[in-house]
Each structure stands twice: as C-alpha cells, then as structure tokens.
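ping. complex inputs:
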Amino acid sequence: MDITRIIIVAVGGQGNLLASHLVGEAALAGGIPVQISEIHGMSQRGGIVESSLVLGDANSSIISEGEADILIGFEPSETLRDIGKCNKDSLVISNTAPLPPFTVAVGMGVYPSVDGSMKLIGSRVKKLIAFDATKLAREAGSVLALNMVMMGALARTGLLPLSEKLLKQAIIDKTKKAFLEMNLKAFELGYAAGAKAFNGVK
Amino acid sequence: MNKLLLDSPGEQLLLLGNEAIVRGAIEAGVVVATCYPGTPSSEIGDSFFQMQRESGVYFEYSTNEQIAMEVAGAAALAGVRAICSMKHVGLNVAADFLMSIAYEGVKGGFVIVSADDPSLFSSQNEQDNRYYGKLSGLPILEPSSVAEAKEMTKDAFALSEELQEPVILRTTTRINHATGPVILGAIGAKKTAGEFPKDPSRYTMVPSTSMKLHKILLSNYEKAAVKSDDSPYNIISGNGKWGIVTSGVSYNYVIDAVKDLAIESKVGILRIGFSHPLPDGIIKKFLSQKEKVLVVEELEPYLEEGLKVKAQEAANTVQIRGKGDGLFSRAYEFDPRMVRSVIASYFGIKHKDKKPVVTTDLPAIPQRPPNLCPGCPHRATYAAVRKAYGDEPIYANDIGCYTLGMLPPLRMADITVCMGASIGLGAGFAKVTGRKVVSFIGDSTFFHAGIPGLINAVHNDHNITVVIMDNGTTSMTGFQPDPGTDMNNIGFKNPRVPIEDMVKGIGVKHVAVVNPFKYRKMVEQVKEAVEFNGVSVIISRAICPLYQNTFNKQPRRTFFVDHNLCKNHRDCLNTLACPAFYLDKEQVEIDESLCIGCTLCAQICPENAIRPRKIGG
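pong. complex structure:
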C-alpha cells in the first residue's frame, strides 16, 4: 500500500487536532493503517500546533524534512514556516487569512506578505491550493469551523486513500451534534473551494 | 460510557498513547491510580479523573509525584493493583521513595509510568529515565507503538506481581502523544480490598531490615533478568550479518529505513522492549552472529553501553556503535530521515533522500512563542511588580504557565530551574547579592514543592518576597485541580487547603492576599511587601479565565480603543503585550474576539482611552 504523509500546522485554537483525529477515524473505518503524532500542551497559549498523519504501511508516526506529501496550513505564515517539510512533488493547502502573532504588534517581527508567501510556496511545490478558508468558515457559521473547511479541501484533492464519504461519516460520528450542520456545511464549502483551486492553473 | 471502559473485546479504537496506557491498566483490573500532571504524561491522570465515577478505580491528583507514588505504592503493598504516572522529571521528585520501595517490593502489581520528553517539547531537560532502572534495580518496559503501550501496561502488572517489584513503563512524547489503532481486550476482574498484615521487621526500613531487603531486591533482579531473556517484547527480525539494536519509537524509524533502503536481507534487527535488566542471552547470541552493529536509541547510550559490556563478557570484538560523530546525537529526538541516513552511512549504502524545498531565502517569519492568554492574571501580577521595581530585583521564577512571563516586555523570569526552586534560589541570591529578590510560584507548584522552601526562608530569616500566583488550578497541564482548588465548581466535595492559613501558620509575618486586577492598589501592596525586612508573601489571587470557562462561562464586557482619546503612547502594548492587541495603521486596536474584559489595559492607559463596551452591545 502506498504511504501518504500529511502535516497539519495551525495556531492554537484553530482545531488542528480534531481535524487530524477525524481523518484518523475515517482511515480506521476504511481499514487504512494510520499513525498520528502531535505536539500539544501549548495549544491554548497561542503557540503553534503541529500534527502529522501517516496513512498506509509505515511504522513511523512523524514526518521528516522534505517528506510530507501534503502540507495543510491553517494560517499562511505558519504554512510558510513549515514549507521545509515539503519537496518539489508535495501538495500544499493553505488558508490565506492571517493571524499575526503578538510579536508583530510589539515590533519584534514583520508579518510577511501573504500573496508573496503563496507565490513563493507555489513556485517550489507541485501544487498549491490557497484560499480564504476563514471567510468560508464564517459563512458556514463560525470561524471555529475552519478545520472542517480545510478537511473539505483536502478531500477534494483525491490524494487521500479515503473517500469523501468516510470523512463526512467521521464528522457525523465524532463531532458535537450541535455543530454538525455547520461542520458539514463548512466541509462542503471547503470541498468546493478546493475544486475551484484544483481546476485552476497553479 | 467512557470509551476506555467499553467491555467489547476485539473492537478497534483510535486512542492517544496515554489513553492506551489507561486502557491497559483497566484491562489489568487496576484499583488505584495516582499522578501529578506533567507533559507528556497528563492525559493518563486526566482519563482516570474523567472516568472515576464509572470506573470503580480510585483516582487522585496527588500533591506531588512522590506522594502519588506513596499512595499507589501502599495500595500495591497491600496487594491491590496500582498505577502512578508522571513526567520524567517527576520521577526525580519521587526518586527517594522509588529507591526504597524497590527494597520493600510489592504484592499487588505496581506500574510506574515515566514519560520522557526528548527534544524538550514541554520540559526543562531531556534526561533519560532508563537509568532509573539501573539505579533502582527495577524492571523497565519500553513500548514502540500506541497499541503496544496498552499491551505492555497490562503485562507490566502481571510482571510486577510475579517479581514482587514495581515495574517502570518508560515512554516518550512520541508514544504518549501519538494516536493509533488499538484493539480492546477483555476487562480484568479487580481485587479491590487490600490487606497489610503488621510485620515491622519486614517493612520498617531500619538498617537491619534493609540489609535483608537489599538481598531480596538482588534476587528479584536475577529473576527479572531471566524474565527479560524470555520476554516476547525483545524481538529479533531478519538474520542478515549487519545488526541494528533499538528500542522505543526509534524501532519504527529503523523498520521504515530498512525497507526504504531495501536492505532487509542484509540486516537483523533486535528490538529491546524489556530494557532493564537487559536480556543477556538474546544480546550475546545476536552479537555473535553479526559483523557490525549499530545501536539506534534516543538520548543516552543506555543500550549501547549495555551491549558493549555483554560483548566484552562474551569476548566478542564485533564493532558496536551508536552515539558519536557521524552517528547519533545524545541530544533531541530522532526522525525517520535522520535514522535512515545514519543507517545508510554506517553500513555503506548509497541512497537518495527527497530534497526538502529550499528555505534559505524565505522572508523572515515572526516568531510565535506561546504567550500568557488575554486576561491572564499572571500578566496583571507581573505588570504591578514591574511597575513597582522595574529591573531592580532578581526575579526567581518557577514551573508553570507563568514561566511564559520570561518574554518581553514582561521579562519577569531571570531564572527558572525546577518545581519549587524559586524560593530556595531566591533565598540564596538574596544572601549573596544583597539585592531585592522576588520569587514567583504558582499555587499548584507551591503545594507541590514550594512549602519546604518557604519554611526554610522563615526559619533562616531570608530577606525575600514570595509571590504565590494563585489562579486556582494547574493551568499549564490542562486545569487539573490542586489542594487550593474550589472543588465545588467542578462537582466534587474535596476540602480546600487555604494558602493564606498555611503561610501564616509557617510564621510569615507579612502576608497580603491581593487581587492583581486592582492595579494601582496592587502596586502599593507589592512595595509594602518588598520593603518588609524578612520573608513576605503576596498571594495574588484571580482564577484562570480559561479554567473558569470550563465550568462557568460568563458573558464578558470587552474593551475598545477610543481614538478620540488615544494619544498613541502605547503603554498598553509596550508594558502588557496582551495578545488581544494589534496595530492597525500605527494605532493600537483590541481584537474583541480575544479580549475578555480583564480591565488591566484600561487601568494602565494614561488617557483613559480604553473603554468598555456594553455587554451584548
């Protein structure tokens, strides 16, 4: 079985861990071997939360530099920061809505241009799907649905050894009933955005 | 029902490593579980806490790791199965008890989980706790996967009962915080009632008793060595002339690397899962069949040294390498690519890795360090102390969320070492420098290891101010209660231990309980305390707002910057750096989705330009 290595990087509070666990549940339901690794503990303190998902016949649950098949960034500067995990054949899915860290406000850094960052990423990997996922999450009902938007876009790539149906079923089974409608709507919006970007020129 | 209690053998669940450990204990019929929380071990205790009303397992967050081990150890001495869990440095705190419970031995299975943290994701050091096996003489099991963590935990109880010794389950962050499929086994029956027949000549460790007990430990050690040699957790795969010996998560990287390099037929892999005592027969036989051996283990050369001793005993001169130039480092965790690359170079295999995209010419990306949250009372405490004294005092800090106050502009942690050290360090600095010293310590850390330091400061008449930052919970590790927590808020009746009564009881003459969000008053209270000659204590009390949200979410009045009044002094930004601030066209703005209305910035603004919104307005 082919191995698919996915990194999800986000800022604490963006729902990264739930997204990686939902993909994991879908893999389990689909009979695909899955290993997930995550660094949390600072997630509620505005730090970076990174998770890695390895689908297929591999033992390792973490992903080295240059070895991610797919990088999903919930925040554009974090996508850029993690780009060393990719190689020229990688696919990158990135939100384009910035969440500048407080270091920018106190003058300890300058937030990079989002357009410039995306152009740079796009020029170095096989494919970049970049769109304002925060806007779509808000359209679905809340910025908290950002993770579902990103999952939708991931589903659309067709690069997962998993069907869209399994992913949706994981959302139905494992997310809170009160948010289900919003979550599914966000997933659909992400799926459609992914399709649009996917059909367009890189 | 909690998923970890499902009585459905054969069902497959996706579990966090820490949850798998808990499930293993449940399957083994554990009766008592204790812990002091610490990353990456915390979810073990948290899972027991969440299920305690339905599990029939007694659980407590103990005041520190040694007490956790004592409570659980007593249960095991009385014949019931017990588990206690801690982060790697927690085992240092419990080491005194560990070293001697090893002499005592146990009757009921006793599993001690030590969660090590290679790469220091959330720790002050990356010590390798496998050496505690050597130091104490106790057996160590080391899982390589989430599924194996469950099986080993379960088997560790049986092993402990068989050897009549505690067993250490040593994990690392990449097991504790990995998630993988686990197949549930049957839930074992519990022996809930313990018995402790009086026999002081057996259990009271005066020298005459301990002399006998040491012999018992050594004889149990011999039995453990036999068990290790027979253990199904020491696995050999492949029979090539090259040998790789490995343990823990590194095993996964080795398996993947050998496959990627297509050298399966040339290599034999020995995965050591029972890593103390080392399996003598297996190792000697493995080494005798190899031309060259590489040891792949994170952190210290524990296996490597052990193998070299075994080789010497067998007069085997095979080359054994692990740590060193061009090989592996003793620092930081491994990753698949690094392991593949060292294996390839050691055995002379040509290989080509995928090239990472070039990153040397990327625009500078601003750092995103974790930060005190909007509305965090620690920020308010720090702002008041800094307002009163600036950089003049030495600020000795401690372990918790508040350590994040080291960052500018607060810069309130000149030194932080380990749990509770702020007070003893402060006393020493005050003595030799003659400078003002303020020690900062959180409520949970104060209960854990701060109290003896405070007693010492009083008794030896040190001139320091101790600020106990009481936010009512152990926030950094996920809001576990501590003895000062009001348990009514979360539906429990445990009595609260009031910090101020304790501090006064110790004999501190200047004690002030302050609200850090009354900024001007707090600044005066800080000055009074610091100017006091001798030990003074400020209890800065305000509940952690994130914690409060978990049981009582209140609508909050947010604040905004009124640009008719703002003269752009930026005192708010430059002294507080609350994450809710941002700059828009060189003007400070407040992100009202982050602001929780703590009012601190409004109190600091010289123009009163930070104004409240009406609730719901």
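The longest strand of chain A covers residues 86-95.
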